[in-house]
Amino acid sequence: MQVQGTVFRYGDNVDTDVIIPARYLNTSNHKELAQHCMEDLDQNFIKQVKKGDIMVADRNFGCGSSREHAPIAIKESGISCVIARTFARIFYRNAINIGLPILECPEACDAIKAGDVVSVDFSTGTITNVTTGSVFHSEPFPPFMQDLIANGGLAGYIANRGKRA
């Protein structure tokens, strides 16, 4: 699986409260959550994001409360992948469970700028900055996690696995 998109760039400690503010957690409508994604940090994000775009951040992305609404809002906004120096552990797990691909790659985070076009090959872990021609390598997901993400997350994986049995 490969994706390519324009980069939205953020710094350290982007917490779940700025990814999706708590005042919007009274809905489980994914599209409504996406309409408020990142609004307390970047009011232009939802106006500018396009399907397939990529989010890049520094350390401890997704820290704060353990709400799974955060990766849901990011995924539903159109972001195809989040690359960070490090992720908060619960956010990491929630992202995989809802089918949002995330990669840790400090070297890519040092070199990628806002507005760059980046492509990611999840089977090899290769991150290519199409704008500059730079290539970076992260740890690829094991095949079962690639299958989980390809099925849209844990719920889709289980539902489709039942169809195969």
TrEMBL record:
<comment type="similarity">
    <text>Belongs to the LeuD family. LeuD type 2 subfamily.</text>
</comment>
<keyword id="KW-0028">Amino-acid biosynthesis</keyword>
<keyword id="KW-0100">Branched-chain amino acid biosynthesis</keyword>
<comment type="pathway">
    <text>Amino-acid biosynthesis; L-leucine biosynthesis; L-leucine from 3-methyl-2-oxobutanoate: step 2/4.</text>
</comment>
<dbReference type="Pfam" id="PF00694">
    <property type="entry name" value="Aconitase_C"/>
</dbReference>
<dbReference type="InterPro" id="IPR050075">
    <property type="entry name" value="LeuD"/>
</dbReference>
<protein>
    <recommendedName>
        <fullName>3-isopropylmalate dehydratase small subunit</fullName>
        <ecNumber>4.2.1.33</ecNumber>
    </recommendedName>
</protein>
<keyword id="KW-0456">Lyase</keyword>
<comment type="function">
    <text>Catalyzes the isomerization between 2-isopropylmalate and 3-isopropylmalate, via the formation of 2-isopropylmaleate.</text>
</comment>
<dbReference type="InterPro" id="IPR015928">
    <property type="entry name" value="Aconitase/3IPM_dehydase_swvl"/>
</dbReference>
<dbReference type="InterPro" id="IPR033940">
    <property type="entry name" value="IPMI_Swivel"/>
</dbReference>
<comment type="subunit">
    <text>Heterodimer of LeuC and LeuD.</text>
</comment>
<dbReference type="InterPro" id="IPR011824">
    <property type="entry name" value="LeuD/DmdB_bac"/>
</dbReference>
<feature type="domain" description="Aconitase A/isopropylmalate dehydratase small subunit swivel">
    <location>
        <begin position="48"/>
        <end position="104"/>
    </location>
</feature>
<dbReference type="InterPro" id="IPR011827">
    <property type="entry name" value="LeuD_type2/HacB/DmdB"/>
</dbReference>
<keyword id="KW-0432">Leucine biosynthesis</keyword>
<dbReference type="InterPro" id="IPR000573">
    <property type="entry name" value="AconitaseA/IPMdHydase_ssu_swvl"/>
</dbReference>
<dbReference type="GO" id="GO:0003861">
    <property type="term" value="F:3-isopropylmalate dehydratase activity"/>
</dbReference>
